[in-house]
Design brief:
8 helices, transport, Rossmann fold, alpha/beta
Length: about 270
């Protein structure tokens, strides 16, 4: 996919509230953000800042909001093949093989059976699972299952890929490996990508920009650019400086530096 085929997302003065025991509860307040074709934007924030709600609104799983959500200048209404999503839990169907789980992403696609089979095979290869087409979900590790979920989200060639803490349930080694794999896939596909995560290092490793959200109601506190070439090195001083800048948004600067030094000690 070229950047000309990737989606342009425009979020304009987006607010969202729920009704709780008869009273309105503001979840998102006046969110405005433009995401360019092919850009990778990471959204970080503490629990309750509305970051997952924002993703669900973009994918069309929730409605009833104030403001505007536009994809290529058109209002988003309901789910569609042009937006793929990966959740923290892989949500594979245990009674379907890997290739049949991936093929679910093409159920509504206007393609012939042979075209569908080719796209399924291509995307299983893209996520590094060639040879596992006929495996069952119970035969896969957690990391492999998430690769299948990513292939399913990408198989319809969406304009936008949405990722809701996709590696949050995985161990640190698997997570670091899949972050590298996701970065490779993003570069190969040229797709507009929005990642929601609570992991600041993951956000900086992958994102062109990191959007820091403040909670209750969720709003954008700061947008931190990440002007570093890929592949990124987590121990690179420039990388650490950007990570510290993001961490500082969650705490006083002294606390943030202490957290960053603790991270460095874990890596050393």
């Amino acid at each position: 996919m070229s950047h000309s085929e990737a989606g342009t997302l425009a979020i304009r003065h987006l607010s969202k509230q729920y009704e709780v025991e008869g009273r309105p509860l503001a979840v998102l307040q006046d969110i405005s953000l433009d995401i360019a074709p092919g850009e990778f934007v990471s959204i970080v924030g503490t629990s309750g800042c509305g970051k997952s709600t924002l993703l669900r609104l973009i994918v069309g799983l929730e409605a009833g909001f104030d403001g505007h959500l536009l994809l290529d200048g058109r209002p988003i209404a309901g789910t569609g093949l042009e937006r793929g999503i990966v959740f923290q839990e892989h949500r594979l169907f245990p009674w379907l093989t890997v290739q049949d789980n991936v093929a679910l992403g093409l159920i509504n696609a206007p393609l012939t059976e042979s075209q569908k089979a080719r796209q399924v095979a291509d995307h299983i290869a893209l996520v590094g699972l060639r040879g596992f087409e006929r495996a069952w979900p119970h035969q896969l590790s957690g990391g492999m299952s998430q690769r299948v979920a990513i292939a399913r989200a990408l198989v319809s060639r969406p304009e936008v890929l949405l990722l809701d803490e996709p590696f949050g349930a995985l161990d640190a080694m698997t997570r670091a490996h899949l972050q590298q794999e996701l970065q490779r896939i993003w570069q190969a596909e040229g797709i507009t990508t929005v990642l929601v995560t609570h992991d600041v290092e993951e956000a900086v490793f992958l994102g062109d920009r990191v959007v820091v959200m403040a909670p209750r109601p969720g709003r954008i506190q700061r947008v931190v650019p990440v002007p570093l070439a890929h592949p990124r090195r987590r121990a690179d001083p420039a990388f650490v400086r950007i990570k510290d800048a993001v961490l500082a948004e969650f705490a006083g600067p002294a606390e943030a530096v202490a957290v960053a030094e603790g991270d460095a000690a874990l890596v050393a």
